[in-house]
Amino acid sequence: MPGKTPNSNGKEPVEHAPRNNQDVDMTDEKSSMKKKGGKEGEDVNVVVPLLKNTRQSSAPPPPDAEGDVAMDDPDKAEDMEVQVDPVTQAITDIKGNFALLDRAVALFDARFSLRALRSISSLRKRLTPDILAQVVAETFPASPASASVAKNLLAAIGKQDVPLGRQSGSEMEVDSEAKASAKNGKKEVKDVIPEIDIFLSILVQVYLFDSKQFRQGSEFSKQVCDRIHSLNRRTLDSLSAKVYFYYSLFCEQLQPLPPSPQSPVVAIRPTLLAALRTAVLRKDIDTQASVVVLLLRNYLLTSHISQADLLVSHTQFPENAANNQVARFLYYLGRIRAIQLRYTEAHEHLTAATRKAPASSCALGFSQTATKLLLVVELLMGDIPERATFRATNMEQALHPYFLLVQAVRVGNLEDFETTIADHADTFRRDGTYTLILRLRQNVIKTGIRMMSLSYSRISLRDICIRLHLGSEESAEYIVAKAIRDGVIEATLDREHGFMKSKEVGDVYATREPGEAFHDRIRACLSLHDESVKAMRFPMNQHRLELKNAQEAREREREMAKEIQEGDLDEDDLGGDFEGM
């Protein structure tokens, strides 16, 4: 072996020293400087480490025996790699979801469709008409069955002239090999499944909404809804729910805007009601939950509270709906109950909505909106929200006007309350809580009376009138009498002498209030546990697939055992994988 040949000086060869008759495998110079070395006078290749200030000669490395030049640094090789075109990457990401949709249809499992829908958030920033047109052209073949669907997609993005049946580079290579192998046969054209068609329609809807083409998006969404209504496929349930969602958003942005009775949101109610009826008959849970939420939002935009209440009372929201739809439904239901003065029910629904709200930054707007309405409802119930709610990093700035409102209500200062409303009236109107906040004036007065009843054992009606900035002593008398009747304060009113006398306050822990509050928290935790168990998703009909596979395996074993008994097979033919019955 050449490794055993001694050197000319009679000493042992240095390890890893290259030979003159072999190709040199170049590695990192810095690592070779650390590993190689020798003494002076030895006939070996010694690599001298370079100083920091010295520079290495820029002569290119010599080629090896095959003429290839090795790289000096592997980091340079990584830098010289060809970067992927963002357009090509976006097209590849969109087409990658087609395999998920195919599996959803083959296995009848909606989880793969939901996984494809979750990728829209990462795709929507990269969507352009050219990318969508290229995906449509490469997906749909130039067949009459698929031409009409593809033309509608291309017309929505203004690319009617793009020819269909275009192939990408990898597909062209596969197609050339298929043509070479089947010269006499005709290539079969595979039709696109409706799930891919609807998924591309959703991408077109997202692009039109982000580019603010609301009129065109509304017309395109109506065509897609008509196509979905004609199809009866359970694998389209989650996709159709998303289509109706964007259809409603398009109509909300069209002129005249709600709450005008001529708004397009009123015109789409028959479409949504028909979709709800069809979804209930087909047991389409995703579309049913989505359309119920859209109808409630539609009625609230035009202030049709009675119709929204009738919809809630005559429909049953599906228990197995997605968590996001449940949170939206509870929020709108809480808003309806708050307008109807049913604050206890509204508080329960809004509390559940805030707990079910996603913790991601994408749902921050929903969490802030639900929290704002919950704070107002708590004030209307006579409770003071916790201060920690306003200290959250993602809530502090948005809830600042409500923090000032809570301060005025907690102290019972009517003047500060009216000043806060005047300063932040636009914010309250934009949040949809202005009319509810106007109801808080009586609560502010009641809170002020309660604070005075706790501070003074007896106080005159004149002092109450001065402290609460009321118009006269008679109005103060009526307000105090109503507070006593409602159980806000425990006191007696002496009309002859004109004063209010407070009763002694007992130990609150001796009452049933702490036990009731503890019971409410336990009930909320138990309901959350039950809903979490119900929300667990499992593959549909998976047990049937397992039984089918087990039955096929048993039949194969019986056939093989029968052939062994007849002498057709022996142990060598089985390969050692056969197990007895």
Task: Describe the structure in brief.
The protein has 581 residues and is mainly α. Among the domains are: 86-168 and 191-321, no CATH class; 553-581, no CATH class. Helices cover 60% and strands 2% of the residues.
Give a description of the structure.
- The protein is mainly α and 581 residues long.
- Among the domains are: 86-168 and 191-321, no CATH class; 553-581, no CATH class.
- Helix content is 60%, strand content 2%.
- It contains 28 helices and three strands.
- The chain has helices spanning 29-35, 74-79, 86-107, 110-118, 120-123, 129-139, 144-156, 169-181, 194-210, 214-230, 237-252, 264-267, 269-281, 285-301, 305-314, 323-339, 343-356, 364-380, 400-411, 414-423, 425-431, 434-438, 440-455, 461-467, 473-485, 513-534, 542-566, 571-574, and strands at 458-460, 491-494, 499-502.
- A three-stranded antiparallel sheet has the order 1-3-2.
- A hairpin with a 4-residue loop joins β2 (491-494) and β3.
- The radius of gyration is 37 Å and the shape is elongated.
- The two termini are 57 Å apart.
- Mean pLDDT is 78; it is low at 1-8, 10-44, 46-58, 170-187 and 576-581.
- Residues 1-73, 551-581 are annotated as: Disordered.
- This is PCI domain-containing protein.
- Residues 566-581 have a biased composition (Acidic residues).
